[in-house]
Amino acid sequence: MTHVLSHLYFAISGGKQPNVSCLSMKFADMPNRFTRGMRYPASIALRYHDGVYGIDADKSFDVKDSILSILGKSLEKLLTSTPKEFEKYKKENSWKVKNIPEETYHYATFGDFALRSQLDCRDPRLPRRSFDLKTRGSLAVRMDLENYEVSKGYQINTMKGRLQSFEREYYDMARSAFLKYNFQTRIGNMDGIFVAYHNTARMFGFQYISRREMDEVLYGNEATGNKAFKAVLILLGNMLRTVTDQYPKRDIRVTFDSHGASGNLDMWVEIINDKEEAVAAQQYQNTGQFTTSTRRGTDPFSSPDPLDASLPNASNKTNAAEELTEEDIDPADDIYINTEHPIIHYTLETFSTFNDQDTNEPVTLRSGNDEWFVNFALKKSLEDPETLAQQYRNLRLRQSTYFERASPDTPDEELYPLVRILRRISRREMWKNDLPAGKFIVNRSRPPIYGSDSLKIQKTPKVLKQRSSLARRTKGELLEDNPTTSDLCNHIAWFGSLNIVAMYRSSFWSS
Question: Nearest-CA neighbor of 119 among 129, 333, 111?
Answer without folding.
Answer: 129
